[in-house]
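Key idea: predict the complex, not the pieces.
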Amino acid sequence: MYILAIETTGAFASVAVAEALEDGSECRILAHLEGHDRYSHLQNLTPQIQLVLSDAEITMDDLSAIAVANGPGSFTGIRIGVSTTRALSQVKGIPCVPVSSLEALAERCVQVAGSTDAPEEGVLICPILDARRSQVYGGGYLLENTGEGAVRLQEAVKAGPYTIDEFMELAGEYDEIYMLGDGVDTCGQKIEANRAEGVAFAPEEMRYQRAEEVAMLGAVKFAAGQSVAYDMLKPEYMRMAEAERKLRAKQAEVKANG
Amino acid sequence: MIDGKFAILAIESSCDETAAAVVLEGRDVRSNVISSQIDIHKAYGGVVPEIASRHHLDNVNWVCEKALADAGASMDDIDAIGVTYGPGLVGALLIGLATAKAYALATGKPLIGVHHIHGHICANYIEHKDLQPPFMALVISGGHTNIVEVTDYNELHVLGGTRDDAAGEAFDKVARVLGLGYPGGPLIDKIAKEGNPDAVEFKRVFLEKGSMDFSFSGIKTGVLNYVNSEKQAGREINIADVAAGFQQAVLDVVVAKTIDAALSLNKDKIVVAGGVAANSRLRGMLSAECEKHGLKLYHPSPILCTDNAAMIGCAAYYKYQAQGPDDLTLDAIPNLPL
Amino acid sequence: MTRIHIANEKDTEKLGERIGQQVQPGTVIALIGDLGTGKTTLTKSIARGLGVTETVTSPTFNIIREYRSGRLPLYHFDVYRIGDPDEMFELGYEEYFYGDGVCVVEWADIIEELLPEDAVVISIDRGASDEEREYEIEGEEDICIF
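Result:
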């Protein structure tokens, strides 16, 4: 089966086409494209999709599903990716597979497992994305052996919005942590100040979101029945709810007294 | 093709409304769906859509589906996708544009980007089948006040615009000051009919000689200051008189500049567009002036005055005929010039 | 907190221009004041100080207008028509407020809780005469105009 993957939660939009067996196994990337203009997702995503399909020598009719990183990350980027996916799905009747951008980032470690690039077993893999104001969207994963020589992710720290201090406290339980995502760029200094030892940052070429892992996870999730119809595909912003909560409470109070 | 005619599915999401329409050859509107106009209790396809202002991401897909269904068509019957790509709110525009681009890619049909104000002007081609350029256009709404010279379907020159508040906005704010409620424009229109426009004089602001620009914040402040000083003196104000006086001060300027523009540039037709085009006093005054000068006056029906996608489908058709399609790299431009 | 007495529109323009000349990227300027107190006039002057060449008009109906011709991008908000925080979120306000441009927000009291902690808050009241205004500025260190 063929999966189209769309990743727009970071600064650069990327797309990929993967081929896999019906059960999601033996997934390999047929073609992939990364954008080079920062935050130009709206301009370039559709042409990129057109190009990657042609590079993979398939048409949209050949697709079994469209996997999309529906968040967290860039608010505008998420909306462009989700709207584009919904529209393609609506016209072609292709199911959508939402994939967490954090999980896809962590998945890179699975893909390189066993090599010298990879963090070892027991290391907490921490994808963190900048959420401004010293906050991050973060999660923690461990590599788990499935027993067939394969490796997969297991969530150890719940993915969500955190202040960098909150996140580091949760990650503090682990002797070794391996961090990826643009949160490394924005919060790197704070992280090093928080914790001098047992922190490794992914090298630049491994640090950022890309569509390939979205495709890999998309294939597995699709095979596991986790796809949705276009009208059920929603963004997962991981909103920092506090300010909004306060305002809502104030408005409710005004209404009650008014 | 639908009934042998070139069919465009048009999408509009530049500000408050998510709208879609199917329009044939620019003037035959087969469907016109606007997100806020649907009765919230009418479920569509078993899914109750979120009818709220600017929830474009949730609305755009069902609005398009309904536009096709209302037109008795499917995506296969559509020949091109039209979409507003500016001006407007980036966050809103991008939903319509991302959707339109994806539809274009998925169907292999051409994509046509449309300027929102061009759309408003084109609403008149839908209303008046015999209307053709050239003419002078007045686009007057909550967000825009422009005099536009239209020399051809795709040749538009903005001659003047507001330097501060749009006319429709001034109406809304004065309505609030007078305690009239929302939406202010129609309420001022209504109550002004009972008032004497000469009872309270507000300064007409023409700006420098020959200017086709507008400025309404002064008139708004004038009304505010009047209301405040009367209140402080303990006198009751006659709301109908103030509304009538304010309206007259605004419309005197609007009508004068529009007529001057038409006469000085030898246009024998005046075309009005935008939400305030529905104002009865404006229509009356323009009508009288046009008759005096031998000009023809055109304005759209109320539904076509507000933001909608049918007008976009019309503009898209004429643009496509003259310039062909846009590239799939089309971007949303919040300040898109005309 | 600083109080400024404004005698007439010229004073407003001078103040606005100084703000525009000094303001740093990432600043949110919140304007609080009734109808007709001159929020848009002040914003036009800030724009002039930033070197914006486009005509700055009232964003009441458009909610956000963007100007890129100046020293820094200027995002002019008018939240008069905003009903609840969801609407602001759907508009992507966080990307504007926490970005690298300058945000000027008219009617900012409507969304007070969403304003950044370090926002500059300018409250405008009418003065003794029609022309006069009284300004109260909080966070003025961030616009370095004194």
